[in-house]
Amino acid sequence: xxxxxxxxxxxxxxxxxxxxxxxxxxxxxxxxxxxxxxxxxxxxxxxxxxxxxxxxxxxxxxxxxxxxxxxxxxxxxxxxxxxxxxxxxxxxxxxxxxxxxxxxxxxxxxxxxxxxxxxxxxxxxxxxxxxxxxxxxxxxxxxxxxxxxxxxxxxxxxxxxxxxxxxxxxxxxxxxxxxxxxxxxxxxxxxxxxxxxxxxxxxxxxxxxxxxxxxxxxxxxxxxxxxxxxxxxxxxxxxxxxxxxxxxxxxxxxxxxxxxxxxxxxxxxxxxxxxxxxxxxxxxxxxxxxxxxxxxxxxxxxxxxxxxxxxxxxxxxxxxxxxxxxxxxxxxxxxxxxxxxxxxxxxxxxxxxxxxxxxxxxxxxxxxxxxxxxxxxxxxxxxxxxxxxxxxxxxxxxxxxxxxxx
Length: 406
Fold this sequence. Notes:
Blueprint: H1 5-31, H2 36-64, H3 66-86, H4 90-117, H5 124-141, H6 155-166, H7 168-172, H8 189-195, H9 197-223, H10 228-244, H11 246-255, H12 258-276, H13 284-310, H14 318-346, H15 351-373, H16 401-405
């Protein structure tokens, strides 16, 4: 813990600002009277920058070093946020959100490679677990900053800039050698589709669902006439629910056939989302409980799908497969915020959850059809479930499974 404390503290600080600011952007656009499809485009731009940055950032970090790279990306984040606060136009915000995605990709890669350096094959699983708790804990806690700022003023931009600047300090005072950035292996996503169609579409559907929820969940809250505090509870508890159910559902998938867990989880998610379409008739405390369960099943869909894909390959191919799954998830994140506003326009204000109901139901039905047409993967290739974060392909280097097998 002493060795990994500094990068984790930097991660917590930057994710407090990132989690809060992403929700604030949606709410600010709604306050200014922007259409839902504009919010979707902004989030698609952010995820496009995150995916592109994840693919092409490694070479830059190798040339300039990790500490300087983190300082540059944190400074760029602060500048981008300030520029976004100075010009309230969709054209400038679209560009700034794309640049923010690239900068965040660099920040994630630096932190993840620091943790990779400071862990051994025997401790990598523990480090990954701590990383997940810090990542989602900070992201969920950041939602409650919404209650302490004026959403119509410049204060949210200033708070995010302060947190971006503070995040530089822990990494810069680390007493450790520069980490070596591992070369990211990759396989064709079409080969992944051929080998494991259910796993492929599970990753894609996860991107469709989670990106749409992050982008339009706050707008759903506003259209339901929730207070800012209630919106922060919805967003924060959903994220915490996703963290809480990672290990129970993962353990179940290690005991019984994983495909059945994905199918059951998809239908459970569809049912929960459908129930949320009647949120206006449900008491708010019960709605919060439903959101916790909703977060649990939606956040576990991605790591379950990755692990199911890995069940069709030997341990030597786990890293390459998980990287390909991360790209598929990123594609879903780009498309999801564009599709969801279409359904929201047809069925306001609950169209978001009708959209999620459709996506999850289609995935569950597809899984049922595949279970009839194709036998499960061989038991000798059955991989242990590992809850991987949805950040960058570099994060999969923390996956302990290849080293344990070798």
